[in-house]
Specification:
The protein is of the alpha/beta class. It has a single domain, classed as TIM Barrel (Alpha-Beta Barrel). The protein has eleven helices and 13 strands. A hairpin with a 4-residue loop joins strand 5 and strand 6. Helix 3 (77-85) runs parallel beside helix 4, helix 4 packs across helix 6 and helix 9 (291-301) crosses helix 10 (315-332). The longest helix has 20 residues, at 144-163.
Length: 364
Amino acid sequence: MASESAVRKSLFAVGIELDGEGYHPRAWRRAGHEPTLLLSPRRLRAQVAAAENAGFTFATFDDSIASAGETAGRIDAIGRASFVAASTSTLGLVPVVATTYGEPFHISTQLATLDYASRGRAGWLAVDDPATARTWGATPRVTEDEIRRERGDSIEVARRLWDSWEDDAVVRDYAAGKFLNRDRLHHIDFIGETFSVKGPSIVPRPPQGQVVVFGYGTEQSGIDVALVSGTQTSDAVAAIQRARESGAARVLVDLTVALDTPTETAAERLADLGTDAGPNQPVPLHFSGSAADLVVLLTDLSAHADGVRLHPAVLDEDLTILARYVLPALLRAGIAHRPVPGSTLRANLGLSRPANRYAKELTR
């Protein structure tokens, strides 16, 4: 029987963050396009196509009501993911959506719709966004317990709503004029401390059964994939173990990267951007150097983690190196595996399709 590490290695996923110009707040200074194209559909399509052609398993799209670094604005993450859903065939699409203050009914239906648009490749990175409270005039959640409760309730409601339609609820019997079996729809009747939801959803059960839920940290409840990191590789490995012990089905390492290019070293590029500014997101584990050395690091991590999510310093520069030298090396070595058309994000992450909690074991 294959060892646990060998099984994880065969399912090693490689994701990439595609928000803005890169993780460095001054990445725009080295962008390879006109400033007016930052939020253009042409640039978004080109980046997503490059990531998919390279063989990435999934892409995330960061989001917040607050501005990102020195970038003045951004387009809604679900909107960006939905825009590229029809033009992609293998890349998982994982928008960041804040749970706190957001209506879980609306979030769940948007993500279910994205799963249909992408034919089963949708994910959800569930985060907390304090800026939302200030913008909406809502009462802020102050303590960690309040934030954790709200996040857990939002994820639980979304999962129940995805299950509120059984897989065979839609009949489509045109001859009989019957299109829906109402016995296969269910009220979820959720009552929490800050909201209640009766259900059912207004969108049929997603193709994946439930959208893949990502979350930060080692002790989040209700998530499928935990994103962890650390100031050193050993810290990340320890965080991986803690996340597994807390019940996460899959654990991925967040890693910021700045790579050597044919004309400059990573150190020279970062120096040009300025050392007084840090990354947009607090992702401590960082790599600077050659593509070959990054392949070595990722190979080492594949013995412990189920994958990585890479945050390029400057997308227009680092994505090219990743696509030309890093992903091909991982694919040739069998560390990573290129997703095939028709596969779901769940399948590409080694996750099974969940059973519907409301389905009755009856002869139908």
